[in-house]
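README: folding subset

This subset contains proteins for which both the sequence and a predicted structure token string are available. Records are stored as plain text. Below is the entry for Cellulose synthase catalytic subunit [UDP-forming] (733 residues), shown exactly as it appears on disk.
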Amino acid sequence: MTFERRVERLLGTSLRRARQWSRPLRLGLILCAALLCAVVLAGVISAPASLLHQALFGLACVIAVLVLRRLEGRLPIIAMISLSLIASLRYMYWRLTETLELENLHDTLFGYTLVLAELYALVVLVFGYVQTAWPLKRRPILLSEDPGQWPSVDVFITTVNESLEIVKITVFAAQGMDWPQDKLKVHVLDDGHREEFRLFCESVGAHYLTRDNNLHAKAGNFNAALKVTHGEYIAAFDADHVPSRSFLQISMGWFLKDPKLAMLQTPHVFFSPDPFEKNLKTQQAVPNEGELFYGLVQDGNDLWNAAMFCGSCALMRRVALEAIGGMDETTLTEDAHTSLSLNRAGYNTAYLALPQAAGMATENLSRHINQRVRWARGMTQIFRTDNPMLGRGLTLGQRICYSNAMLHFFYGFPRLVFLTAPLAYLVFGAQIFHAAPLMVAAYAAPHLLLANLTNSRIQGRFRHSYWNEVYETVLAWYILTPVLMGLLRPKSGHFNVTDKGGDLHLGFFDWKMARPYIVLLVLNIAAVVYGVYDYLGADVTTDETVLLNQVWAIYNAIMCAAALAVASESRQVRAEPRVDAQLPVGLQLADGTQYRSVTQDFSPRGLGLKLAQDQSIPLGTRLRVSLFRHQHPYDFDGSVVFSRANTVGIRFDPLTLSQQSDLVHLTFSRADTWARNWGNGTPDSPLMALREISVIGLHGIAELLKATLRLPGQALERRRAGSSPSAPALDTP
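--- output ---
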């Protein structure tokens, strides 16, 4: 029996005995224990220490965390969190009581700005630990009733500007879900008012819904459909999110078990790379930006009954939605606000960490920033108008989970402060710490190291070390103003739809998006150089201070350089991304020759595969492709458009609607397509992660230099052409 199991058994025995005590006695003991822990913790946090004693204390904590990091189970993680919080709270207590005796306005301005940023980071760290310390890891409940007793479901597919080719796939997949067909209705909610969509829906048996206006954007579209449909449950999907066949059977069981359950969310996963993965070539090597939220945070929220609706890939109970007046229409993040309203009304929400649908990620950096700007402003609006820390109906855990989700988007100002703080001393000579540099290191190093090691242990499958700083550096400048406007004018702003699909025939360096990173990179490099000059002429007593700030500036420069690499847009020649998948396939040529193989990838128009080592098919060869479901073949005619050694690319002939539907059911709708590799990436190693980001940073600087050298030639070409193509514009609400 493991140590953790012994502890759990001991605690279980103790709890059973404690239940026999009277309620006042139990409450009294709990309060006494809590008070004793608080007194001890306060004593540890506030105890004064010499440089040697603080250094030994920090070293002991780091060693303990390094040992705990190797142990399996949740109890070692709780111990790591406890040590991390002690080190961080001890640092902050010392910071507030010992380092702010600033002597002039110059020092006070820089010093208090930095300490406010640190306080924000500490609050987010504490709330994050509460969210992620013990994920619920909910499992599906399989349906046991006769299918004739299963409830009716309306599938809502919202669209406004997506192409019909994108929406077709989602509609076919929704129609192919394993559910009684007389209890499943698929509705296309078209705010684009497009005739071709209506005709398509009529031809495939889907319901086409539109309205006289586009008020309140997606939420208004959803609510309009809510009034004219009647299913007991609603499955919500964005136009590009393709559900698997098993979505409803996997999701519905919890609703039948819990009559108060109003919403069950499943992960958002993507079959195309986002700008970070595409431009940095990190797909499948580094978890993408959203994996932390869907892989860990939502699972942690679920423990506190605070799982959030994310607008798509979710199942909802109609009566609960109608009880709160439908989807919220007052903020730009209508989905999260809706789940907050459901929880306030006493309904439960749930999260099932099993991918059951997949969509298209934003293709380039400007679109990605547009999307995050909308999220940031919407969450700020909720924080301002319906603050989860205020009002009735929420537990403390729910308040913390929702508050942290909103506070996350406030990182713009703190991140910019951290990226520029070394300049305060190295360039402007501001004394932002009224303390000896070695004492600063003795308090700050355990705080930073323990937080990094603990989060690496908790988040390692879904977020590698230091990548959070890269993501925040890329977005900080752009979300700063929208967040401020959301606080000052919460009713302003509009819903900007994130464009999906398209191609990029030529790679380019996005100067417009990169400007803030270039400025920050130059400033930090200048600070390092200025520090060398200052170091040569400095008094011996300030050498350590210069060195500490230089190390900080170098770290900042690495993050800014990595952000530059993201701004170097890679060439994208396929309007429709290919999905990696290994599916059995049969090939038959016109002369009767047959091959058996396994696909490497697929798209709505073709697939790629590898034959046996000694086999090949010439370019242009006509053939018939067979894909299988339950051993039954489905045939598609096509031709070879790529052939190199034993690698073959096949493009299908134009498909009928029936064939398109079959192809979607055989590929995108497979239950294992999205779940196979999710959360199974390379484990985190902090040192390796820092090395990878440093290499990416060097690549970013190289891309900046190459783009700078190309500028004269590009200017000449523009003058000759008489026009200037531009990168996608940033639409900031």
